[in-house]
Amino acid sequence: MASTDFARQLAGYGLTTAGILYRLPDHPSILQEYVWQDYDLAPRFPELNKFLAFWKAELDGKLFRITVTHRDLIGPADLSALNGEFHLQ
Asked: Whole-structure pTM over 0.70, yes or no?
């Protein structure tokens, strides 16, 4: 049985990383960065949007800037059929 992460990659999910720059609640002039990473679907990013909705509803730090990068880890060129068998001892 394949891992759930591998199955998600085959379903089109790719690794998404978001650098979330936010203001500290007690010191709004100071910015701090939080790095979020998960498998997500581009270009709509439902997992990231769910996390950001949680952030806005539950956390006090006001969002300043979000930088998103996305990489499909497995693509058609990355998978190839192997023809052969190797025996070790």
From this structure: yes
